[in-house]
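[job 4471] stage=fold_predict status=RUNNING
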Amino acid sequence: MPKLKGFASLAALPEEPISDKISRKIAAGDREMIVWWSMKAGAHANAHKHPHEQIAYMLKGKMEFRLGDERRSCGPSDVVVIPGGVEREAFFPEDTEVIDVFAPPREDFLAGGLPDYMKVK
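[job 4471] inference complete, writing structure tokens
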């Protein structure tokens, strides 16, 4: 996925299937990245951490989220601000859409493919 400059349309961004339950669309600049996630019921992002700061915004559905030692059930309009280096994990008991903003951009996402923490263990 190349970095973008100027104008774009969400509808025109390619949708990347990550697994049978997860897909995403990405727009990235030089210093930040936004990711639109579609999660099917039963999707799981295994425990992981990375150096990127992350802000998650819930569009629809439900996310059972662990940030460090704190657990919350998140729904539409909820926001989670996640410092870099803090372990997190998410379960999606129903179809869910989430927007994530990362700074700096995640090079592993730009390279495409399934992140290690989303692989079935």
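[job 4471] summary: Helices lie at 107-111.
[job 4471] exit 0
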